[in-house]
Design goal:
With 457 residues, the chain is α/β, with parallel strands linked by helices. It contains 13 helices and 20 strands. Helices cover 30% and strands 21% of the residues. It binds flavin-adenine dinucleotide.
Length: 457
């Protein structure tokens, strides 16, 4: 890798050009706000009309409600994300559970709750929660104890790189019952990939983050506002208040020569830049350049070869309240989670948001087929929905929601690249985490620190 310092001599006129950040999702905005906080002038460019990237919201045509492009859930262990929210004054836009508590509705319609006691340290609170959980026969619950040694020494695990999540769970004595009822829903939510395909390493990393630190690390953190309002607009205000700029509808191209990055072109304007953070997804990296710069050839080839995984969301508006919980996990069904946005957002929203992660099988279904499936499963799981009238339904297919975690995928790149001045961020870069908000925020902070550490400001 070429050290960034090659690009950080004093500016000829004493005024440094802006650092240009391309992409206004969690990665780009966490990078840009960290730089702005340290006094660096930044320009953030995003091709789309609204900020937020894969974590955003749009206005529903009929109801005027702001609807997320898909429900996003964070955890107490999202340290970089929570630091970012705190920096921009948006920590009040999320609510955090005191300790992990998840209501589940099983295939027979029985509602149970996995609730980890707040008074026990991690990971014992999880084991105690599972042992008390009525959602499973006792023999299955007891198999969780066999995971205790692995949870307690998670930091020291050396994993067979070809092991899948399912293989790892079986190797740690988890019964088929607890895998189906607990580990599979958690793993699919965290990894967006079937457990028989997904590599074990990122899942073990997630468990390590959630269960081997403090007990709120496993608590769910829910956005209390539509996603772009929750973090992206506060980030914009933060950047602008520090003399930076945030532009939407701004498709960017990077200009580079043998010495490295020289400018960014946007809508016919050339912005001089010696330092650019790319915070675009894996499949968009190639489009940043008219021609692939030779130092980036292998990075771009690897990024372009990464496979993607879809998430499908069905939003349903009923004529009355049909669920008592803010959210519920479903097992043994196609829909994995139902969120009542009214209970999460307040009266500004009145729809249910139904999540299907690892949605390869349902993505090709028509809108009507997906809505019919969702309505059937809601009626099966929630008795109050059976007598309610469906007023409206929408479907959001995010075909490139996350990158694939199967074995044989290309290597994920570090922040520093071989092109001087060009730094990578994005959930898909080498954070060891799955494609999550936390991975994006961590990558953004790393990219910003790489520029700061090179003596930029
Ligand atoms: C439906 C759904 C549900 C999810 N649920 C969860 C969840 O519950 N928990 C969780 O942690 N994660 C979840 N994720 C994953 C999470 O959304 C992503 O990991 C995260 O948002 C990625 O952020 P990012 O900044 O790396 O990339 P992105 O958000 O993709 O941002 C990249 C930005 O780059 C812009 N861009 C691309 N090319 C250009 C260009 N040439 N010029 C200018 N701009 C450009 C794009 O417009 C985009 O805004 C979910 C994702 C989806 C889609």
């Amino acid at each position: 890798m070429t050290p960034l310092t090659q690009k950080t001599g004093p500016a000829p006129n004493g005024v440094r050009p802006h650092v240009v950040v391309i992409g206004a999702g969690f990665a780009g905005l966490s990078a840009a706000t960290l730089l702005a906080e340290r006094g660096v002038r930044v320009i953030v460019l995003d091709a789309r009309p609204r900020l937020g990237g894969r974590a955003t919201a749009f206005e529903d045509r009929d109801t005027g409600e702001l609807v997320d492009n898909g429900q996003h859930v964070m955890f107490g262990c999202y340290r970089e994300t929570l630091a970012f929210l705190k920096r921009i004054g948006a920590e009040g836009n999320v609510q955090t559970q005191p300790a992990l508590a998840i209501p589940f509705i099983g295939p027979e319609g029985l509602r149970t709750e996995l609730r980890c006691p707040v008074w026990l340290p991690a990971p014992l609170h999880l084991l105690a929660g599972v042992l008390r959980w009525r959602g499973l026969p006792l023999t299955d619950r007891l198999s969780a104890l066999r995971l205790a040694p692995a949870l307690l020494r998670l930091g020291n695990q050396s994993l067979d790189r070809s092991e899948t999540v399912l293989g790892w769970l079986r190797a740690h004595g988890q019964s088929a019952g607890i895998v189906t009822a607990l580990w599979e829903p958690l793993a699919i939510a965290a990894l967006n990939q079937p457990i028989a395909q997904a590599a074990a390493a990122p899942f073990v990393r997630v468990l390590q983050e959630m269960f081997s630190t403090d007990k709120t690390a496993a608590s769910l953190v829910l956005p209390k506002r539509p996603l772009h309002e929750m973090y992206a607009e506060p980030a914009r205000a933060f950047i602008e208040s520090r003399g930076g700029e945030v532009r939407t509808g701004a498709l960017a191209r990077v200009i580079a020569d043998d010495s490295g990055v020289t400018a960014v072109e946007v809508r016919g304007e050339r912005i001089p830049a010696t330092h650019v953070i790319s915070a675009v997804p894996w499949h968009a990296l190639r489009t940043l350049f008219a021609a692939v710069p030779p130092p980036l050839a292998s990075t771009i080839a690897d990024a372009s070869a990464m496979a993607s995984m879809p998430i499908v969301t069905v939003n349903l508006w009923y004529d009355r309240v049909v669920m008592q919980d803010a959210f519920v996990g479903l097992t043994g069904r196609t829909v994995q989670w139902i969120f009542d946005k009214r209970r999460v957002f307040g009266e500004a929203a009145s729809h249910l948001s139904l999540v299907v992660s690892a949605a390869e099988a349902v993505t090709p279904m028509t809108r009507d087929e997906l809505v019919a499936l969702a309505v059937r499963e809601v009626a099966d799981a929630l008795p109050d929905a059976r007598s309610a009238t469906l007023i409206r339904a929408t479907v959001v297919r995010e075909r490139q929601a996350t990158f694939s975690l199967t074995h044989g995928q290309p290597k994920r790149p570090p922040s520093l690249t071989a092109l001087p001045g060009f730094v990578l961020a994005g959930d898909w870069t080498a954070t060891d985490l799955p494609g999550t908000i936390e991975s994006a925020a961590l990558s953004g902070h790393r990219a910003a620190l790489a520029i700061l550490d090179s003596g930029y400001n």
